[in-house]
Specification:
The chain is α/β, with parallel strands linked by helices. It has 6 helices and 14 strands. The strands form 3 sheets. Strands 2-1-3-4-14-13 form a 6-stranded mixed β-sheet, with helices on both faces. α1 crosses α5. The mean pLDDT is 97. Bound molecules: glutamine (GLN). Glutamine (GLN) binds next to α2 and β9. Glutamine binds next to α2 and β9.
Length: 238
């Protein structure tokens, strides 16, 4: 069995060490004797919806999102829709998360999203939403805490029938108003949480591998990983 991951725009969409997310997926697979393959698709490059089990996009500054947004609609939107429809995992963090929706409106400009989920992001007047954050989420194995760090100027609003990834326990979440964080539709997951996300929430890394490969994983010895999770929870004030 092999996990095939494709990182979208890895050289542009990678802040707060978001690349650590794919490093953790690799380690969790290899430590169990599972194969792991990491491909990339960047500006102007096509995307094969059937060649990967998990599609990943990290966070980015506004200027990187400007470079990426139209290209992503042009060269990857259809493939992402096809991949999501067959149940592949799509994981998007912060700037990448914002581009999964319909649009990201910043000063005088509207960046298009790929429309994989029903949400809109707007840069409203007001401070950036920064700090440690913790949410409660259920990915089919009961409620668990996801802890990380957020730093975004954009505020995200989910459409009426769209589900969040979780409820905010501490921090700002999607927009600092409705107590919701991220988005979760079938195996498409978007979140504002860096940390990076998966090294700090190893249960989530394993769950995503399970969903991507439609399998159940054996536990590993996770003393250090559990300590990292506890420290991220403490940092968020839990
Ligand atoms: N540039 C986006 C914003 O400020 C996303 C930032 C990020 O990925 N941390 O809202």
């Amino acid at each position: 069995m092999k996990l095939r991951v494709c990182a979208l725009y890895p050289e542009l969409m990678n802040i707060y060490a978001d690349r650590g997310n794919t490093a953790v997926l690799r380690a969790r697979c290899e430590w169990r004797g599972l194969g792991f393959e990491l491909a990339a698709s960047s500006l102007g490059e096509p995307l094969d919806p059937d060649a990967h089990d998990l599609f990943y996009i990290g966070g980015g500054q506004d200027r990187d999102q400007i470079a990426v947004a139209e290209d992503m609609v042009r060269t990857k939107r259809d493939a992402l829709h096809a991949a999501a429809a067959r149940g592949a995992v799509v994981l998007a963090v912060c700037g990448g998360y914002q581009l999964l929706g319909h649009s990201y409106v910043l000063e005088g400009e509207e960046l298009p999203g790929v429309g994989l989920v029903d949400l809109r992001t707007v840069r409203e007047p007001g401070p950036r939403l920064i700090g440690n954050c913790a949410i409660e989420a259920d990915l089919g194995t009961g409620p668990r805490v996801i802890a990380g760090f957020e730093n975004h100027g954009g505020r995200t609003y989910l459409g009426e029938d769209e589900r969040p990834l979780g409820r905010v326990l501490k921090g700002h979440g999607n927009n600092d108003r409705d107590g919701l964080e991220g988005v979760h539709r079938r195996n498409v997951i978007g979140t504002y949480l860096h940390g990076p996300l998966l090294p700090k929430n190893i249960w989530l890394a394993d769950r995503l591998i399970e969903l991507a490969l439609d399998t159940e994983l054996e536990p590993l010895e996770d003393e250090l990983e559990d300590a990292a999770h506890a420290s991220a929870r403490r940092a968020a004030g839990l």
